[in-house]
Design brief:
It is found in: Chromosome. It is built from 47 helices and 2 strands. It is mostly helical. It has a two-stranded antiparallel ribbon.
Length: 1099
């Protein structure tokens, strides 16, 4: 039950603040920061209001009844009411006015401010008070409207005065006049929560109070506690509806902006996801805020992204008001989100909300038959408009989002899947446009993705919707001819490019090209069991490839269709060679045919020409009968380049398609010698790049070709331009990965050690390391990716691997790579993956770690003030310690049946090696004090077990000697490092001793093992044995901590034996006498004892 309150709470709050602040510093967050002194004797109104608030905190079921009771008390205190004489006489003894009622209500509210967050009783009381002021304000308005004619005029009512007193009391607690606010975050939360809830129930507010609230809530929106900022956001969102567009003059700490701008700024920059969610739930969706709301689809918090796709997007009036870029981004972000709930919500938005917005336009039903929330009948035009709204022509490439969206569409909208059919000839002949073609292609892709065992019936039904192979051949041929005609019209026109007619021709050409590409995609999945249809399709595609004006995208797909139609790769290669020959004949029909100089020239000669300085410009041309003018020569040269590029494009797609064929195939050899070889020797950059690409594809197919020309690729990377380097570095990585024997050492005939491979160092230094240090971001990223691939598959020798690994690690910590997020992302995946894949990799990282620290320290010293700051040493050492931790290597830690984890013995070796390397360098004079600090910091992060067997006893003993030397020389920089070295010395000393003991025990067990045929020797007399033991080397030796002379040990043993033999019991007096005698003996011995040195020097 709420306690008692003072009649004037403002001053009492300020006086109690200092005391509670001192209490809160002792860690008592529950301390009552809002103390209310004694309010005097109890009263009837206090009892009634206390009882109402006490009942309101228990449940929300009776709050409506309690509001009525509290309203009656308010009316009794604030309004004059006609009452009977008996009742009036009873009330004469104790009468209350409006101030008494307001004081008691505020008093009950103050009792809630100390209730922690999450306690339901506090939330119910605040909710009850908010509902009460809402209902009371409405009843006061009705009373004043009955008395006055102007219903729009705002009057001062008892409830408005109560609200003002509550608000000013809470603001006085949060922002006291003496500038010493309450430090308890619980009070801040509850006070802000009460303000937000009360403001949310009001329809009108005084101007001065509104301005004060807005200023205070904006200040609270910068509170350090996220819970307080959430409540401030709720309050500001309620004030936003009454906020004008004019900027208000506020203090220097407040920005002259309206509430909406403040909320948008918080939604973008607030670190708390709870605050961003609160703003997203309550912000107004307008043209000024919708763009910021869409940005939350990429929020790091999955709950915020769920709100965008499950609440915001479905609540929009129509998705078509959004820009095309916004639609594409929202669809791509949602369908490719990490959270499965977000992906499903985005698919629902596309398949239901957006589709229904389009389908409503084509719904021909009368209005009385339409029901809210009921989907419109399936419409093919609605799907077409939806695809047009997401611009499938530009966003339907192989990795475009339109493919993912349509896969979800066919999965969710089964009504459209059953409704749509493609067996109508009118659809393929007249209706087919880019959107319909993509619709048909997406359905074919969905059909191919179905399980052949579980979805047999559905798969068969979808396949029946498409025409047969023979029919589809006619459809594809028709649209191919239309495309070639459109291309001829566009390039044959003399109009300027910016002319409206030219732009229309360009758009029409792009649409037809996209349509043909979708038809070719469908052709890849057709059933070619019908021989007639297969032959028709093969001849039609073969004829299309011979057309020089066929675009590259269509050429690639046509070659893939041709491969599907051919039975063998030999037949396929033969058809491609014929197509290349026809392309030459078609384009050079006007006496401009290019003839090769040596058609049967081997590739090795091409390699020699590339390496030499005398590069043949181009294959020789037949001399014209007469001299040509410069324009004709330029046109002829341009035509030759187009011939080469078109032929090389066909050859490249052929090499990408074949899988099993090698260069024993005569057709491939012909293409290599007559087309690829001259292209590699060309001076034209575009032709040379395409030729190198074709040569790389051929080298992937044939190992001998790769071995003979690997030096050519290295030469091209060293001397070529950036575009050629991009091609070469990808080619080298794929070739080396495909033919892993290329970089192995060459065996010798006489059986000696293998000869080192000559290409390993060239590939490492001239390509990979040079590429990593390149100024071109694309080349450095490709070099990083290529090097990572080679190291992960262990394709390089250990020396080169260590060199590249060191360079990659330096690149990772280099502040210059902050502008290359691709490189950082690739290395953040590669480095831990490489080190934790094998124990030898972690050991390799440990061996180069000291060099890494030295390089990074030197780079940090050489950096200028204007350069970007490198990450701190704690981060660097933490990364290296993690990468060299053998316990994290795969299969090094195992979990037993009892749940306990055990680590293999070799898992400790990387950190032992790391500690040894660190101490060996830190103990030298070349290591400065500043460089020693990060090294020893790294040493403190290394894990070396205090007990257990050692993976290498010699290495562990060496480490113990280094640690002892470091302790003796006081090597540590600070107390943490010195304490770690001391602790490490103690553990290693104990561990090495245990290992030596175990080794000696194992050796002695081996020596005392008696063979079965060995005779047992005679045992010598006891006296002779004792004399021999005294003459041994171990006689007289004792442990470091032993203080008892060895010559007394035998006497003690004798005495113990005598005591054991005697039958006389030992009494308490005997024990006391023996203790006194031992003390006397010790005093006598102390007089003759020579004090030994406190510490002996270590070797």
């Amino acid at each position: 039950m709420p306690g008692r309150t003072a009649s004037r709470s403002t001053r009492s709050v300020r006086s109690s603040t200092a005391a509670t602040t001192r209490k809160s510093t002792r860690g008592r967050s529950s301390a009552a920061n809002v103390e209310i002194p004694d309010e005097g004797p109890e009263s009837s109104i206090r009892t009634e209001i206390n009882q109402i608030f006490d009942d309101a905190q228990n449940t929300t079921a009776t709050q409506r009844k309690l509001q009525t009771m509290l309203r009656k008390i308010q009316e009794r205190c604030c309004y004059e009411q006609a009452e009977s004489k008996k009742k009036k006489k009873a009330q004469e003894e104790e009468q209350f006015d409006e101030q008494d009622f307001n004081t008691e209500v505020v008093r009950c509210l103050l009792r809630v401010l100390n209730v922690k967050k999450g306690v339901q009783e506090g939330d119910r009381v605040i909710k009850f008070l908010g509902l009460f002021v809402k209902n009371a304000s409405e009843k006061d308005r009705q009373i004043y409207q009955a008395d006055t004619e102007d219903a729009t005029e705002m009057h001062e009512t008892p409830t408005s005065r109560l609200i003002e007193q509550i608000i000013r009391t809470l603001l006085g607690i949060l922002f006291p006049a003496d500038g010493n606010p309450v430090q308890n975050k619980i009070v801040h939360f509850r006070a802000t929560q009460a303000l937000a809830h009360i403001v949310g129930q009001l329809t009108a507010l005084d101007d001065d109070l509104f301005a004060l609230l807005r200023v205070c809530l904006k200040k609270l929106s910068r509170h350090k506690e996220s819970a307080v900022r959430v409540q401030a956001v709720l309050g500001l969102s309620h004030l936003m509806n009454t906020d004008d567009d004019e900027d208000d003059e506020e203090d220097d700490d407040d920005i002259a902006s309206n509430i909406l701008e403040k909320l948008l700024d918080m939604m973008q920059n607030d670190p708390s996801a709870e605050v961003r969610r609160a703003i997203l739930h309550n912000i107004e969706q307008s043209k000024d805020s919708i763009r910021y709301i869409f940005e939350r689809a990429r929020d790091i918090d999955p709950m915020v992204r769920r709100i965008v796709y499950r609440k915001v997007l479905p609540s929009l009036a129509d998705f078509r008001f959004m820009r095309l870029v916004e639609r594409e981004k929202l669809l791509r972000w949602g369908l490719r989100d990490r959270d499965d709930i977000v992906r499903k919500a985005a698919a629902r938005v596309f398949c239901e909300k957006w589709l229904e917005d389009c389908a409503a336009t084509y719904d021909t039903r009368p209005d009385e038959e339409r029901r809210p929330g009921e989907p419109a009948p399936p419409s093919l035009e609605a799907v077409r408009e939806l695809l047009e709204r997401i611009n499938v022509v530009d966003y339907a490439d192989e990795d475009g989002i339109a493919h993912d969206a349509m896969q979800h569409f066919w999965e969710i909208r089964t009504d459209y899947r059953d409704f749509i059919t493609f067996d109508d000839h009118e659809f393929w002949r007249d209706k087919l446009d880019p959107q319909y073609a993509f619709l048909a292609r997406s359905l074919m892709d969905y059909c191919n993705s179905l399980n052949e065992k579980t979805d047999v019936a559905l798969k068969q039904d979808l396949e029946d919707k498409f025409p047969t192979t023979a029919q589809f051949d006619y459809i594809l041929k028709k649209h191919l001819n239309e495309l070639l005609t459109s291309i001829s019209q566009y390039y044959g026109s003399d109009l300027p490019e910016d002319d409206s007619e030219m732009l229309k021709l360009h758009d029409d050409m792009n649409d037809k090209e996209f349509t043909v590409q979708q038809l070719l995609h469908i052709a890849l999945s057709l059933d070619y069991s019908d021989g007639v249809g297969r032959n028709q399709m093969m001849n039609m595609v073969r004829e299309a490839l011979s057309r020089a004006e066929l675009p590259e995208g269509c050429t690639k797909l046509a070659i893939q269709v041709l491969r599907v139609c051919c039975d063998t790769e030999s037949e396929f290669c033969q058809l491609i060679v014929e197509a290349i020959a026809e392309v030459k004949d078609t384009l050079m029909a006007d006496d401009a045919t290019v003839t090769g100089d040596d058609d049967d020239e081997s590739f090795h000669s091409a390699q020699s020409d590339v390496e030499s300085d005398t590069v043949q410009a181009r294959p020789k041309k037949a001399k014209a009968a007469k001299e040509m003018d410069p324009e004709e020569e330029e046109r002829r040269r341009e035509l030759e380049v187009n011939v080469y590029l078109k032929c090389l494009d066909i050859a490249q797609n052929m090499l990408q398609t074949v899988v099993k064929s090698d260069f024993s195939n005569q057709s491939l050899t012909t293409v290599l010698n007559t087309l690829v070889v001259p292209a590699v020797r060309e001076q034209e950059a575009m032709i040379r790049e395409r030729g190198i690409t074709c040569l790389a594809l051929g080298a992937i197919l044939n190992e001998d070709l790769a071995r003979n020309n690997i030096e050519l690729f290295i030469h091209c990377f060293t001397k070529g331009h950036d575009a050629l380097k991009v091609i070469v570095i990808q080619a080298l990585a794929d070739i080396v990965w495909q033919h892993r024997s290329l970089l192995k050492d060459e065996p010798t005939d006489d059986g000696a050690e293998p000869k080192p491979n000559e290409y390993v160092k060239k590939l490492t230094k001239n390509v990979l390391l040079k590429g990593l240090r390149s100024d071109n971001n694309e080349i450095s990223l490709l070099a990083c990716t290529a090097a990572s691939k080679l190291l992960l598959f262990d394709l390089l020798p250990r020396e080169e691997t260590a060199l590249i690994l060191r360079e990659l690690t330096l690149t990772y910590f280099d502040p210059d790579t902050a502008q290359q997020p691709g490189v950082r992302q690739a290395l953040s995946y590669f480095l831990p993956t490489f080190c934790h894949s094998k124990i030898t990799n972690a050991l390799l990282m440990a061996q180069i770690s000291v060099q890494l620290i030295g390089k990074l320290w030197q780079k940090k010293e050489d950096m200028d003030d204007d350069d970007d700051e490198m990450v701190g040493w704690p981060i660097i050492t933490a990364h290296i310690a993690d990468w060299t931790d053998g316990r994290k290597v795969v299969n090094q830690t195992q979990v037993d049946f009892d749940g306990k984890s055990s680590t293999k013995l070799e898992a400790e070796e990387p950190h032992i090696w790391l500690a040894t390397e660190i101490l060996e360098y830190a103990l030298t004079r070349n290591c400065s004090r500043d460089e020693r600090k990060p090294l020893l910091t790294l040493l403190t992060k290394a894990y070396i077990a205090p007990t257990g067997p050692a993976p290498d006893e010699e290495k562990l003993s060496t480490l113990l000697g280094l640690v002892s030397e470091a302790v003796d020389s006081n090597l540590g920089i600070d107390a943490t490092q010195r304490n770690h070295l001391t602790k490490l010395q103690v553990n290693l000393t104990k561990r090495v001793g245990d290992v030596e003991t175990a080794t000696q025990a194992a050796g002695s067990d081996a020596e005392t093992a008696i063979p079965e045929a060995t005779e047992i020797p005679e045992i010598a007399p006891a006296e002779e044995t004792a004399e021999e033991e005294e003459d041994t080397m171990m006689a007289g030796m004792q442990g470091e901590s032993t203080r008892m002379p060895l010559d007394l040990e035998d006497d003690d043993d004798v005495e113990m034996e005598d005591e054991a033999k005697s039958d006389k019991p030992i009494t308490e007096d005997d024990i006391v006498n023996s203790l006194l005698a031992s003390e006397i003996d010790e005093d006598e011995d102390d007089d003759d004892t020579v004090v030994a040195p406190a510490k002996q020097s270590r070797r």
